[in-house]
Write a structure and sequence with these properties.
The chain is of the alpha/beta class. The chain has a domain of 131 residues: Rossmann fold. It is 20% helix and 31% strand. The chain is globular, with a radius of gyration of 17 Å. Bound molecules: inosinic acid and magnesium ion. Inosinic acid binds next to strand 5, helix 3 and strand 8.
Length: 188
């Protein structure tokens, strides 16, 4: 008998399957092509690591010439699956954002602490514009108000993984977003 894929024992259910994900990302791409139609200095800024799959798929739908760069930020002080008030930049982007139209591409907004800090940091560098595009949004978890310009899916307060999002650094490669089983989270 073939072995069951390893992720299955952690998966409660598939929340957003590959077709729905890709259809929504194509739609977002269309909207961005319209909104940034005349933009000459567009920079897609991927927040590592969770945003990688979303960035690469989204970028392929954007016909406006654009640059890509990466930034890594993390919250610390609490367990890996909880957010904290303190955020630090682990890896800064290389591009000088001054005068550029920056679109931040993020996997998920939870409490909002990470993005709030990233936005504050970027704003101080005087980009021409700064907007946010998040694949997933857990509105009910928000602790800090954030204006999200583009959202793929609003989701409930459940821990999800796949399509860039990790379960203890694993399973980012799955083509769908799945809900983690409660007992997969017990070792927190
Ligand atoms: P925030 O600062 O609370 O908004 O947390 C944002 C970060 O926490 C995201 O960029 C993810 O890396 C991580 N995160 C939040 N919720 C989940 C989840 O359900 N699955 C995987 N990672 C998550
Ligand atoms: Mg993230």
């Amino acid at each position: 008998m073939p072995m069951a894929p390893a992720y299955k024992r952690y998966l409660e259910e598939i929340l957003i399957d590959e077709d729905r994900l890709q259809a929504r990302i194509a739609e977002l791409g269309k909207t961005l092509n319209r909104d940034y139609a005349d933009c000459e200095d567009l920079l897609l800024l991927c927040i590592l690591k969770g945003g990688i799959m979303f960035l690469t798929d989204l970028s392929r739908h954007i016909q406006v010439p654009h640059m890509i760069d990466f930034m890594a930020a993390s919250s610390y002080g609490l367990g890996a699956r909880k957010s904290a008030g303190s955020v630090r930049i682990d890896m800064d982007l290389q591009t000088d954002v001054r005068g550029k139209h920056v679109l931040v591409v993020e996997d998920i907004i939870d409490s909002g602490h990470t993005l709030s800090f990233v936005i504050k940091t970027l704003k101080s560098r005087e980009p021409a514009s700064l907007k946010l595009c998040a694949l997933l949004n857990k509105q009910s978890r928000r602790e800090i108000e954030i204006d999200v310009d583009y959202v793929g899916f609003d989701i409930e307060n459940k821990f999800v993984f796949g399509y860039g999002l990790d379960l203890d650094e694993r399973f980012r490669n799955l083509p769908f977003v799945g809900v983690a089983r409660q007992d997969a989270l017990l070792d927190e």
